[in-house]
Every structure is written in structure tokens, then in C-alpha cells.
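Record format v2
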Amino acid sequence: MKEVRELPQEPGIAEKHALPEEFGELYDRHSPAIYYLALRFLGDPQKAEDATHDVFLKAFQRMDQFRGEASARTWLYRIGINHCRNLQQTWNERHMFPSSDSAIWENTAADDTPLRILETKELGCRIQASLDAIPAEYRLLLLLVSDQELSYEQIGALTDQSTDAVRGKLHRARKAFATAFAKTE
Amino acid sequence: MKHQSKFSTNQQQEQAAELHAAQKAAQEFESVEQLIRHDARQTLPPPSIARRLHESIGQSDAPRRAWWRRLLE
């Protein structure tokens, strides 16, 4: 059972900028999650800012298509994931491990020990470096599963795979991340 | 007396800062997800996004006339 937590947000930021009322609420509630996904997926604050803007603009333009079958969060994530993937494909800037190299990470020693950090101010850089070092599929899964508002079923739907596949890949993703994170010390 | 009080306040602040630093130094996360959640909680979207979005929505709100309407006018 996943515990539900409130995401951090600056209250009323959309209100300050006079976004339409309902849409402003949507923005206030979900923009921290969408921005964080874009930031850590793309690895660049400016690109993340642009992507978050574009995702919410698309959402605004497609509000009539949102039928409430999925949660607003899932709907926004779907737009966000597609947008970030397209950007990444277009820019082709990042060195990524080809999928066949996933075995490198899968064969590393299991690292179930707590992740210890000595210097919190550099934590963001270390997390980014670790996410950059693992396959994009693992990166996305870890970012999604860290959002406690999403269930494994929703993550499976967002990434077009079964819940069992999500669980299996998450196990490998955690190991890959822990290995990469240890190297950032 | 006043000077002493100020001194002890400074001392308390220093002790609090040291304690805070020690707590930070010892921070551990049980899982990758916890670590990422911690990072996410400290990462807020810049306010400029809402401003830009407001401007973009204002522009996209402009009613579009269909091509055949323009011909009829």
C-alpha cells in the first residue's frame, strides 16, 4: 500500500499569475511533480522549465480531451513523458547507455545498504549524475515510483508494460542507481 | 547583562548550527525512492513558469476564425 503524501508547492503561485481558476489549481497541485520529472529526466534546469511550460500549455489546450478516466496526475505525466522523450530524441545531446548494456547494471553486486549522504548541498548533483548514468528506462521508472501518488498499475500504464514488468525492472533500476550513486562520492 | 544575553544567544545559535550540520552529515536514506523524494521535496518549479504560461494562455485564447468565415466576411 503506497502512502500518499502532499507534494511540496508554493501555494497560490498560479493564482499570482492569474491562470484560469480550475487550471490554476491543476498547475499548483501538479507542477512540482512535472517539473521534477522534467528536470531529472532531461538533466537541465532551463530545458525542464521550458518542458514544464509546454506540458501545461498542451494540457490547457487539451482540457476538453481530459475525461477523468485517468487521474489528472497520470494524464499530465503522460503528456510530460512524451514531451521529454521527444525532446531527448531531437536534441540527442546526452550520452546514454544502449539498452543492451543494461546487463552491466544487472550484474553489479546488490547494494541494499542505506544510501548515505555526507553533504546535502551536493545531493541534487549526485542524484542527477546517478540518473544520467543509468538507462533512460530505469531513470523514468525510478522517478515515477518515487511519486507516492502513483500506483504500480499507473506506472505500468504510463510506461506501456505490465505491473510485474515494472516490479522486475524497478529492482534492477534500484541496483543500478545505488551502484552509480556510490561512484559519485 | 544585555551583552551576556546576546553572547549566549550567539552561542546557542552556533550550537544549533553545529547540531544541524551533524544531523545533515549523518543523513541516510533507506531506499532510492526515499532519496529521490527528499530531492523532489527540495526542488520547486521556478515561478517564471507560471508567468510564461499565463502569457502563452493569453495568446492561445485569441479566437481563431475558420478560413471559410474569413471568406464570408
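The longest helix of chain A spans residues 21-42.
DSSP finds nine helices and one strand in chain A.
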